[in-house]
Amino acid sequence: MNLKLKALTKSLWVFHAACSPCNNCDIEILDVLTPRYDVERFGIQLVGSVRHADVLLVSGVPNYKTAKRLKLLYEQAAKPCFVVSIGTCAIGGNFFRHSYNFVKPVDEIVPVAAYIPGCPPKPEAIIMGVVKLINSLKG
Amino acid sequence: MKNLFYYTVFPGFLFTVTLGFLSSWLDRKVTARVQWRVGPPLLQPVYDVIKLLGKEIIIPQGAPKFLFLMLPLVGLASAILVSTMNWLSMLDAGSGFVGDWIVVIYLLAVPAIMLILGSFASANPLASVGGSREIKLLLGYELPFVMACLVPVIKAHSIKLGEIIAFQASSGILLSSVSGVAAFIIALLCIQAKLGLVPFDMAEAETEIMAGAYIEFSGAVLAVFKLTKFIMLVASPLFLVVLFMGSEIKSIVGFLFVLLKYILVVVLLVLIRNTNPRVKIDQAVRFFWGPITALAVTAIILAMIGL
Fold this sequence. Notes:
The complex is a heterodimer.
Chain A lengths: L2 H8 L2 E6 L5 H10 L11 E2 L8 E5 L6 H11 L5 E5 L1 H5 L19 E5 L6 H16 L1
Parallel strand pairs in A: 1-2, 1-3, 3-4, 4-5
Chain B lengths: L1 H7 L4 H22 L9 H10 L11 H27 L8 H22 L3 H32 L4 H11 L6 H17 L11 H4 L9 H27 L6 H23 L6 H24 L3
Helix pairs in contact in B: 2-10, 2-11, 3-10, 4-5, 4-10, 5-6, 5-10, 6-7, 6-8, 6-12, 7-10, 8-10, 8-11, 8-12, 10-11
């Protein structure tokens, strides 16, 4: 495995893009950083700016306001940047899919590298999603 | 040629970067243990920097390209120089020149100034907010910092780092005197602000201004900023070690002893960082210009009367 890929998989910096979620997923995401799960062991940390990010973690339903901003965020990120859509809302719209302001699922707006289903997903499921992402990067 | 070797290899770039990686890991590990977590592996800062070097560099529209790319390098170069001068004056007390104390204080301010210029060069409103906070903070802590660093100069009657160390070797470290302790506490708090650690990290507050001054930097440019931070984490505590508990390095044991003192200062900084919330910029400036400057004046008076 080459050094660049190894360094990338060992230090994934996450930018959390909240596309109008109900905050349940966000609470579970913060759980993953707490002492019980502590993903900083694997070099994962939250960053403040999307320019620093390797992973764009999208939660919530993309609606008319957030969908174009999500696209803009992805364009602003320094590549390689992988999108992970977390929660059933981001994956398929959940029960908001027939709502008047639902646009499309996240993977039709930006390319998605990994999905973490659940409403909300448990911290274990989020870590599972991270493992899937890393394995897909390693090929 | 010998100076080039000093600057790039032994006490300079390579050695300092290695030590910087280790102390950054120490910072994160101690933070994790304080929060009852496991913390990152030993090579984590190395992975971070290698990863950033491999990423795309984005130059924002309207940003001056040359300034945007050059400023971090200037900051890095001066941080390395500070570390080299500190190590050299400990390795050989006669190696410095008269007035290197002043040069070190100037060079320690350069990375902060480069960060300010870099944030204004990145054409982003949040970066400007971060940059203006960094300016106010710089104005706040520089005065008490210079006054605290004056105490060893008054005691040793010299503005040469080597002679300050030689003075401490002959008549005890400065931390054993009342004025020395007061000045050390002031300088420690100023270093905390200089390194942008938590009570004084309003210039890069992730949660309110999204990494502030660093917001537009990406890829290798951000990696250089990270390296500068790691090296500042070596250079500025080391300057405190030289000024307040300096000793000449004559053997491996002496080297390990200096390293131990350095680690002690870093752990103190990390503990202060972990037990305090972020203060507002006006609170920080009031803190530095009020009680801290008053304490610094007291320390200088105490040093003048020989305590």
